[in-house]
Structure formats: C-alpha cells, structure tokens
Design a protein that fits this description.
The protein has 134 residues and is an alpha+beta fold. Helix content is 28%, strand content 34%. It has a single domain, classed as 3-Layer(aba) Sandwich (Aminopeptidase).
Length: 134
C-alpha cells in the first residue's frame, strides 16, 4: 500500500486490492529487493482469454530509475507469451511521459485515446497495445 500511495495521485484503497485478488483473472506480481526482501515494486494485470490487460506498474521512489519497472513489464510480457495471449493492452496518463517512453521502447504502440479517463482530474488516457508474436 505504501508504494501505491507514493506512486499514484489517486491510489487504490486496500479493499480495491482485496477485491481484485478475488477475481480468478486478476494477478498481482511483487518485486522484492534481494538484499532486504522489502517490496520495492508491483504490477497487476488481468489475463482474460487471449488478452492481457496491464492495470498498474509501480516502483517505490527510492528504487526508481534502476530498471525495475522495465523488469516488471518484461515479466508480464513473458507471462503473456506463456499464456499464449494475442495482445497486451494498457492505459497510461497522457502526462506520464516516462511510462509512455518505457512502453514504446518495449514495442507498445499508441492505438487510441480515452478522453477524460482519469476521475481525479479528467486527464485523458493513451491506449497502447503490443501484439504478441504467435
């Protein structure tokens, strides 16, 4: 919950995570610091039929710019490949240039915009996807 609060302007509440984990298609991956065992990042996603929807990727501010977000996304892409997913999709804030650059570097492409997607400030979301090789 600490990482969630530090990473997002409108963080999920604990109950949202609890509810999410009760869904059979929902997954939460936690990245731990090998030295301390401390949680330093996480991602959560849905795997439904042949689609993987990446919901959140977050890294504790003390551990950013060290490749951890990239490692989390690579893990999700490996999961998608193993599950034979056809596509990985996500939404990202228009203003989140760092995340958008990471996703583009990993091969995601912008396929649309969701106007006023974020309830906290009405910001648009960029819809991105990555088609998985068969």
């Amino acid at each position: 919950m600490e990482i969630e609060r530090l990473a997002f302007a409108t963080p999920w509440v604990r109950q949202a995570f609890t509810d999410e984990m009760s869904r059979p298609w929902a997954h939460l991956e936690i990245l731990r610091d090998p030295a301390s065992g401390r949680a330093i990042g996480f991602c959560n996603y849905w795997l439904v039929a042949d689609e993987l929807h990446l919901l959140n990727v977050a890294v504790h501010p003390d551990f950013r710019k060290q490749g951890h977000a990239s490692a989390l996304v690579h893990h999700v892409l490996a999961t998608a490949h193993q599950a034979k997913a056809r596509v990985v999709m996500l939404e990202v804030r228009v203003s989140n240039h760092a995340a958008r650059a990471l996703y583009q570097k990993l091969g995601f492409r912008q396929v649309g915009t969701r106007p006023k997607y974020y309830a906290d400030n009405g910001e648009d979301a960029v819809l991105m996807d990555l088609e998985m090789a068969g």
